[in-house]
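Issue: ligand-bound run for pyridoxal-5'-phosphate - logging full I/O for the record.

Environment: standard queue, default settings, no custom constraints.

Inputs:
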Amino acid sequence: MRIADFALERYFARWEFAVRHLLCASDVQGYPMAELLDLADDETRGLWEGLQLGYTESTGHPLLRREIASLYETVEPDEMLTFAGAEEAIFCLLNVSLEPGDHAIVTWPGYQSLFEVARAAGADVTLHELHESDGWALDLDRLRRQLTPATRLIVVNLPHNPTGMLPDRATFDELVAIADEAGARLLVDEVYRGLELDDADRLPAGVDASRGGVSLGVMSKAYAMAGLRIGWLASHDRELLTRVAAFKDYTTICSSAPSEVLSIVALRARDQVLARSRRIVAGHLERLDGFFEDWADRFSWVRPRAGSIGFPRLTVPGVRIDDWAAALVEAEGVLLLPASQFGHPGNHFRLGFGRTDLPEALDRLEAYAARTLR
Ligand SMILES: Cc1ncc(COP(=O)(O)O)c(C=O)c1O
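Outputs:
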């Protein structure tokens, strides 16, 4: 298999653990292990203390599958598979569900593996480009025109990385109808679901919205536990899940036993876990509102409706974001993620607001901006 480098991951490999402030991380500040164990009930404490470090069930621990199923309206515990993060789920699903001659439509800019793995599987991929001038909204008329008789898969990421875009309910329902009418599978990457700024904006899960819908979830983002490396796919298509499970035999076979138990603990205490994440991102977003108001003549900003990231743009004529971000990290140890890492030509950058050092990171960025952009 030939596959292009994952630009963002290569960038993080260089910087993630070398800088003082990661102001472009997509996850929420990692949940402290000791506090997580305090949330265990009698059953999960017993599982943790009695854990034997053998292989686990390839489809996922039965209690974990039960917890994941309960996140949805229509999903049975045997209508899902667990993976090592969302990344492995994407890799396995796209490899199994696409082949040469198939066509897929994928939102862009976006998480690279959602279209790169599709391409590597031999599919013909059309990018559904989102534009700042539209508030990064989906353009469903254009999406309809992008369909071909060979379209097997439509991939959307809602809430969206890197823009924080979330459609309203009517738009989402229309998207589902388009996929259904076209006979295409709809993969909804929902790794930021649960981080809506207004609970009323939460969309139905893809798997609940359509019989052909597939939901992708993970412990990394809204649940703030990227270190567990537990993700999942939920689908009513059991034949598809069987084929994906067979593919997974060539990747990780099964999940990490400690991570499965910790995920069960976290999902049973999901209200507390998610409330913490929402508190963090909502507080930081208010802080960002103030920053972008003060700097409206230097940065444009479409305020995210959900998630822990946004995609502002440096609007100072003649200043390229790649250069400015490189100088910023050198001077202040604050890392941004320029749009070029998404292959995007604009002067945008990804800004993450899930990490608790955001106030200090933003102060440093602002001080640097005051020195260089005034
Ligand atoms: C939209 C999206 N999907 C999938 C993933 C992969 O998640 P994980 O790193 O937990 O496997 C990410 C991670 O940044 C993401 O932003």
